[in-house]
Amino acid sequence: xxxxxxxxxxxxxxxxxxxxxxxxxxxxxxxxxxxxxxxxxxxxxxxxxxxxxxxxxxxxxxxxxxxxxxxxxxxxxxxxxxxxxxxxxxxxxxxxxxxxxxxxxxxxxxxxxxxxxxxxxxxxxxxxxxxxxxxxxxxxxxxxxxxxxxxxxxxxxxxxxxxxxxxxxxxxxxxxxxxxxxxxx
Length: 185
What we know:
The protein is mainly beta and 185 residues long. The chain is 12% helix and 39% strand. The chain has two domains: 1-53, no CATH class; 73-183, no CATH class.
């Protein structure tokens, strides 16, 4: 019976207000546009869970596609022959980095004064740069010393988008092939 007295006392305006409060389920004082019942005044178009006023297509999480890292690539090479060093045995190399280039400086054994270094091959497989240096003989009929000599050379391998992980340098001669250097620049 007390309920009827309350409803009669409130009248029509009070009934609408009371009904709005009861529709929340929490009695928290939200407005009819407060669709989640938190009293925060969110609008029906705010469907995400962060209360940020997003649109129905805003799911609240962004999925970014990672940009793949460019892979290093060999863009060119240069080979130069330096001076003859005489007969002191060395057959050595050093590997260094100069900006985006790998620079190999070495010397290779020749069995006479007419054998000079030449670049046999340069290959990059996406991980390892392999440089093979050999010797070539002068044209037939050229006068040559008969002493063993070592001759300097320089190989410059030009890269873009990074450098190789490993550099392997081999010396190829008529009597054998030997790995002179394996290094990580």
